[in-house]
């Protein structure tokens, strides 16, 4: 079955550094991957979508890459700030196109 | 804010009871998807409604059912509650049914089953 794997260990980084989060997918090649941010007790907020024919997508301090050979997406936050501390979820749309499959998320802590 | 609202925000029920959760989608959106999120996990897809019809379902038993109304708001009903149903229930609205690229999530309903 389709599966999305994200590093379950929390990522702790210093303010100003670049945070890099990893998302690996198995058993299915999605047409695109999505990244969301989720704060405690809140719903996920859509950040970026990258298609299989795109190597890289940027939005302000965010950058996402998509490597279909490695079956992996990397999510980067440059010049990180304490306000970036949250859980970041990777997601893919499953076969049939209606079901979004989420990873468990990676918790990011940015220290001032 | 996404414009997606959910009610109630919190709910406590006992095992065996039934619960109804509500979601108002963002203006102009005709598709609502429901998710269950256990603590420390990602959201798990329950089902999707598009123009008042169920458009797809995840691996949840039939005691999880839903409705979508002509104004595209939606309800999630869970019968015969079990302890494992304790979770954050999220709805997400979007436009266009299957193949949705961007979903807008509500704040969720936190359900505790005792």
Averaged pLDDT of chain A, please? 91
Shape of chain A: globular
User: Beta-strand percentage of chain A?
Assistant: over 45%
Oligomer description: heterodimer
What helical percentage do the residues of chain B reach? under 10%
The largest β sheet of chain B comes out as: 7 strands, mixed
Written as H for each helix and E for each strand, in order along the chain, the element string of chain A is: EEEEEEEEEEE
Q: Which class of secondary structure composition applies to the elements of chain B?
A: mainly beta
Q: How many DSSP H or I helices of chain B?
A: 0
- The shape of chain B is globular
Q: How does this model look, in words?
A:
The complex is a heterodimer of chains A (112) and B (114). Chain A has no helices and 11 strands. Chain A has strands at residues 3-6, 11-14, 19-26, 32-38, 45-51, 56-59, 62-67, 72-77, 86-93, 100-102, 106-111. In chain A, the strands form 2 sheets. In chain A, strands 2, 4, 5, 9, 10 and 11 form a 6-stranded mixed beta sheet that branches. In chain A, a hairpin with a 2-residue loop joins strand 6 (56-59) and strand 7. The termini of chain A are far apart. The mean pLDDT of chain A is 91. Chain B is built from no helices and 11 strands. In chain B, the strands form 2 sheets. In chain B, strands 2, 4, 5, 6, 9, 10 and 11 form a 7-stranded mixed beta sheet that branches. Chain B is globular, with a radius of gyration of 13 Å. In chain B, strand 4 and strand 5 form a beta hairpin. The mean pLDDT of chain B is 92. Classes of the chains: A mainly beta (112), B mainly beta (114). The A-B interface holds A 4, 6, 32, 34, 41-46, 49, 89, 91, 93, 96-105 and B 2, 4, 33, 35, 40-45, 48, 55-56, 58, 88, 90, 92, 97-108, 110.
Q: What distinguishing features does this structure have?
A:
heterodimer, A: 112 residues, mainly beta, six-stranded mixed β-sheet, five-stranded antiparallel β-sheet, 11 strands, 0% helix, globular, B: 114 residues, seven-stranded mixed β-sheet
């Amino acid at each position: 079955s389709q599966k999305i794997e994200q590093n379950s260990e929390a990522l702790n980084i210093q303010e100003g550094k670049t945070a890099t989060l990893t998302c690996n997918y198995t058993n299915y090649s999605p047409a695109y991957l999505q990244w969301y941010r989720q704060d405690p007790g809140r719903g996920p907020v859509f950040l970026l979508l990258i298609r299989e024919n795109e190597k890289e997508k940027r939005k302000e301090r965010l950058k996402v890459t998509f490597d279909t050979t490695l079956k992996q997406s990397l999510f980067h936050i440059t010049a990180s700030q304490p306000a970036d501390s949250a859980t970041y979820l990777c997601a893919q749309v499953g076969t049939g196109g209606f079901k979004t499959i989420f990873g468990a998320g990676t918790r990011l802590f940015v220290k001032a | 804010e996404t414009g997606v609202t959910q009610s109630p925000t919190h709910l406590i029920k006992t095992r065996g009871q039934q619960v109804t959760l509500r979601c108002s989608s963002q203006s102009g959106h005709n598709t609502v998807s429901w998710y269950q999120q256990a603590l420390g996990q990602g959201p798990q897809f329950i089902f999707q409604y598009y123009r008042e019809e169920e458009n797809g379902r995840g691996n949840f038993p039939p005691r999880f059912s839903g409705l979508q109304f002509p104004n595209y708001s939606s309800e999630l009903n869970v019968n015969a509650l079990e302890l494992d149903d304790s979770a954050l229930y999220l709805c997400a609205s979007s436009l266009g049914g299957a193949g949705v690229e961007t979903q807008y999530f509500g704040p969720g309903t936190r359900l505790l089953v005792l």
